[in-house]
Amino acid sequence: MRVLVVEDDDELGLALAEGLRAAGLAVDRAGSRAEADEKVWVNRYDCVIADRGLPDGDGLELIRIWRKSGYAVPVLVLTALGAVEDRVEGFAHGADDYLGKPFALAELVARVRALGRREQHPRLPELAVADLTLDVPSHRVRRSGVLLALTAKEFAVLEALMLRAGEAVTRTELLERCWDEMSEPASNVVDVVIRHLRRKLGPPDLIESLRGVGYRINGPA
Question: What mean pLDDT comes out for the span 37-51?
Fold first, then answer.
């Protein structure tokens, strides 16, 4: 998942980003309504975490504008305004979830993952290519029935390839889906992860390199 955190408190925003990245999510940050509005039209997000008290206005007004324009990404409001009437107002403006501060990071991660499962193009519970299976809910990958130990990033890249089995997936598409704005697009991070994936998946190699383009995973889906 790629998540946008809209929080003007730099210390809290950094802590949130680090915690979510540790949970295997790609995270971008915005410190104002204007910056958040710009980012959502440039990048594809699976979820937005938004504070209400932003320097250029209430975050709820931004959500209302998004909903009016047809932008349907799931939004979790994370704020110190946690009274019942505040939560009701949040949902009335188009928020999908509402969590008051202080909060437990583990609960926030669980709520974000739950919202991500509501995306417009639902993920299949299990993907399969040849003798390779990827179980989305449990984050387990097996080859010929043998459980493989993958990192969160390796799992994300493999899932992106398997969702489009038989199709070419560019390096840019993998970067946009599996990494965040802190990544260097010109670096070889995608190639490094693919190399590690090939080693862990073992022979025969299912991932095909497409020179100057990216990668494709072959086999009957």
Answer: 89
